[in-house]
Write a structure and sequence with these properties.
Length: about 270
Amino acid sequence: MAALRLGPTIAVVVLAGLFVVASASADGDPASDVLPIADVYTPYPAPSNARDLSAAVRKVYASGHRIKVAVIATRRDLGSIPSLFGKSGGYAAFLGQEIAPFYSGPLLIVMPSGYGIYDAHHTTAPEKKVLARLKPGGKSATDLVSAAASAVQSLAAAKALDSPDTQPPTIYPSFATVEPGKSAKLSFHVLDNSEHASEVVTVYSGKQKLAVLHSQMGAATYETALSVNWNVPSNVPAKGLKFCVVGTDPSGNTTPTPACTPLAVKH
């Protein structure tokens, strides 16, 4: 059964929990709070050309590769670590380690002083070769966002973003109430490097499996909830129900431990 889109609304409770985790490790730099679930950080308010940068990044993901980008225009964009302003390589390593629980792959930093690139598990020599030929065209947030978009396009054109994906999807199931004899929507959020995944959803009564539901490989971004439909048996037990989700990405990385949440039964 294919996963269903639930729309752009983010599950508030799950999202809040994720931000608590991110903020706890962020040491006060805003990009550490944003990039666990987003692909682009820009100064606030976002320049009007930020959509061009987002479009360039989306094309990278559509090609089967990945990249996250942080545009740092002033010390204010570094929050409590302004000492790293002007040190794009140092901040790239710092930020990459901060978001490591959520993302592994190329991370591009753009500052007025130049570009920084970081990848915890793969050489960045190809990216550095491309970036060495580029320079930001100005110091304003708009200039730097434009430079970031051009850099992403250049990296993609040079096929410099070939970083193996070894990080499995993380699943965040949402609590649900089901009604005997009716169809129920079991929803969940998926956070994965590739932003693509397939899922297996298993419904349990205690240790007994009541249903195993499958979704096809498809787009999986955290801000968009996915779901499967379960035809609830009319004699479903009133207590002890839960559903568990396991995700697999296009590289074959599979969630090591099923993510589970209880199900309530409406009578």
